[in-house]
Amino acid sequence: MRTLGILGGLGPESTIDYYRSILTRFRGLRPEAGAPPILIHSLDVDKGIAMLNAGRLPDLVEYLSGGVKVLARAGVDFACIAANTPHIVFDDVQRRSTVPLVSIVRATADYAQTRGFKRVGLLGTGFTMGASFYPDEFARIGIAVIRPTEAERALIHRKYIDELLKNRFLPDTRAEILRIAQRMADEDGVQALVLAGTELPLLMRDRQDPRLDFLDTTAIHVEAIVRKLLDDSDRSLAQ
């Protein structure tokens, strides 16, 4: 069976969620196969944020590429970055990597296409909401990405950095983000909201609001990762 590498720590809580979710989904699809081999290399989210705040994207590429290199040297067959925001430099990191990387953005876009969405909202860190990597990927398949207002983006970013990355998931914060999501549905006409921050699903998963359709990027990414584990395993057995 192929070995998966997870570049984690960006932040830690979502890395834990990835690990548990991958095991659960894999065992659900292939209960007789046991558990897949997984290696995790945890980076420092504060270092990554400092690079982003300073606009030092080349340094971020070096930092992430170094982490992927550690996983490759350890013998992984493919890897993933267990976070959305670092995908701002995904293409550069993939070009430097000797192993394939499974993109959370590509997986989410493909999923949104299967659901028939044409207009989605984007929630995440300020870096993610302000960058073009989600809109560009979705535009490739004819889906428009709508960002929150500047004030809403500032609020979401502050909550993300000060609370979610510190493992604080508060009901008041969830209510504020739900209000923003509902406004975007009512005023901007979005058909779904992309939770483009892997801590956001941890905040929103037990919500009860059938009017809003949220795309859990962690769950979507996990599905793509597990399918690759299974596909690669099946191909290996067939050879």
Strand and helix map with partners:
Layout (H helix, E strand, L loop, with lengths): L3 E5 L3 H18 L8 E5 L2 H9 L3 H17 L4 E4 L8 H7 L4 E2 L1 H11 L4 E6 L1 H5 L2 H7 L4 E3 L3 H13 L8 H17 L4 E5 L3 H5 L9 E3 H22 L1
Parallel strand pairs: 1-2, 1-3, 3-4, 5-6, 5-7, 7-8
Helix pairs in contact: 1-11, 3-4, 5-7, 5-11
Describe the structure.
Strand 3 (78-81), helix 4 (90-96) and strand 4 form a beta-alpha-beta unit. This protein is 55% helix and 14% strand. The model has no long low-confidence stretch (mean pLDDT 94). The radius of gyration is 17 Å and the shape is globular. The longest helix is centred in the C-terminal third of the chain and has 22 residues, at 217-238. It has eleven helices and eight strands. The chain has 239 residues and is an alpha/beta fold. The protein starts with a strand and ends with a helix. The chain has two domains: 4-104 and 219-238, Rossmann fold; 105-216, Rossmann fold, CATH 3.40.50.1860. The protein has helices at 12-29, 45-53, 57-73, 90-96, 104-114, 126-130, 133-139, 150-162, 171-187, 200-204, 217-238, and strands spanning 4-8, 38-42, 78-81, 101-102, 119-124, 144-146, 192-196, 214-216. Helix 5 (104-114) crosses helix 7 and helix 5 (104-114) packs across helix 11. Strands 2-1-3-4 form a four-stranded parallel sheet, with helices on both faces. Strands 6-5-7-8 form a four-stranded parallel sheet, sandwiched between helices.
Short structural description:
The protein is 55% helix and 14% strand. With 239 residues, it is α/β, with parallel strands linked by helices.
